[in-house]
Amino acid sequence: ACVVLIPTYYTNDYKGAFGQVTSESSTGFSTTTTTGYFSITINRLENGNPKIWIVWIYAATYFLVLLRRVWVEWLVFIELREDFLANGDKESMKEDDAESLKQFRNSCIVENVPASHS
How far apart are CA 19 and CA 52, in angstroms? Predict the structure, then answer.
């Protein structure tokens, strides 16, 4: 964001706006501040500015990167889960490894059983 969005906002020429707002529920004045901290925020882009596409592309790319990262973590989790289900927790094995592993492989957890089925 620092490399893409902040320069996009800061290099824009928009200096803010002040206007009257009239709607069914309220009447008043509206301001768009673009000085100080707001010079590096999306406030600096006026409505209809073509630079908004840069923001949109950045947001879409960021979202896709996050989805990819979640997918990679899911693949790693599935591999570890399958190993755990096949071999059990090696650190908690007792002296009788074969019997402990047999018990582990033949156990299942049942949760959230409705009261009508208990």
Answer: 22
The pTM of this model reads 0.57
Cβ neighbour number for residue 115 with a 10 Å cutoff: 5
Q: How crowded is residue 34: how many other Cβ atoms within 10 Å of its Cβ?
A: 21
pLDDT tens by residue, 74-90: 999 999 888 877 776 77
Phi-psi region of 97 (alpha: psi -120 to 50; beta: other; left: phi over 0): alpha
